[in-house]
Input
Amino acid sequence: MKKIIGILALILMPAALLGQSQQSAVGGGASLWAGADMATYNPDWGCATDQPFGCFDQQVRGPGAFFDFNVHPKWGAEGEARWLNWNGAEHEKISNYLLGGRYRIYRFHRFDFWGKALLGGGWITTAGYPEVGSLKGSYFAYVPGGEIEYRLTRRWKLHGGYEYEIWPSFANNGLTPNGFSLGVTYRVLGQ
Output
C-alpha cells in the first residue's frame, strides 16, 4: 500500500505544482521608483501669458525629487517636491510639495505615457519681496499633468513631464504656474 501511495504521489506531484499561480510565486506587480529632475516653469506672476515658455527670460528653474509607488503596473501613487529658486525675476521663488495618483495611459515599446492628478501646497515669494505689492505665502494647489518615461535598463528610466498647477486661492484670479521637467528614475523595489 505504501508503494502505491508513493507512486501516485510521484505521478500527481507535477499536476499539483502547476496549480500554483504565477502571481503568487513571483509576487505582485508593485514597484517603488525614486528620481530627481530639473524643471523650468512659467511662474504666471508678472507674466502676460500663462504659456509654458511665455516669459522665457523670467522662467523659474530648479531641482525636484519624486517617488512613484506603482501598486499595479497601470496605476499607483506619486509624491514630489520641487524647489524653483533660480533665475526668477528679482529673486522670485516657487516651491511645492504634492501627492496624488497616476495612471499609465499607453505603452509603446520602451515608452510609457502616464497621466496624473496631484494635490498639495505651493509656496511663492514674488518678485521684489518685501516691496509694496509683492507677496510671500503658501497656497493650496491641485495639479493635473502628464509624463513620458523611456526605459533605459531594468532599473533606470529617463523621465520627462509637464504640469499645470492651479492655485485657486491666490489673490483675485488664482495663479497657474506651469512647466516642464526632465530627469532620471531608479527602481528601488519590485519588478
